[in-house]
Amino acid sequence: MLLSHAFGLFSHPDQEWASIRKEHETPTRLYITYVVILAAIAPICAYISTAHFGWEVGADRLIKLTEISAVQLSVLTYLAMLVGVFALGYAINWMARTYGAKEEHVPSNGIALAAYSCTPLFLAGFALLYPEPWFNAIVFLAAACYGAWLMFDGLPIVMGIEKEQAELYGVSLLTVALVILVSTRAGSAILWNVGFAPAFVSG
3 lies in a domain? Predict the structure, then answer.
């Protein structure tokens, strides 16, 4: 089962990457049975915490999002995560030939590498049940660092290239990931200006 890889990537990543390469799952199946499920963790947890728990501002003032606003922002976040994983997987496949890997007509390995490297970020979504900005920032920063390490570790195994080439490849992919992140932030700002801005209520 594809979800079993999520735990293997934390306990024995090298063996797990080798297993993922052998599976060579189609992007569609990988998305439906892995990305669609794990990417939903953060939006669901964020909806629960922001709409029902809220967070304190100042002297015991509880702030929440309205139900509609929480749903809107959670759905948009979910869609952004799905698009981001696909874009990163596409970039991995698109740059493959440049760094000595085989470019695939159907980017199975590229999408798999992107999806499984994002596993720590997917699971970090559980931290959103505790809506404290400093706590969430620490958890997601740690998850991002481990996700980046997973990508560097998995590149030579999944894409079948030398480690020296994989290092340059990985740096390029981290740059792409940062561009995707900045693009989603810019997209959020645009959407907030066209009617999707968060709506707050006092709890």
Answer: no
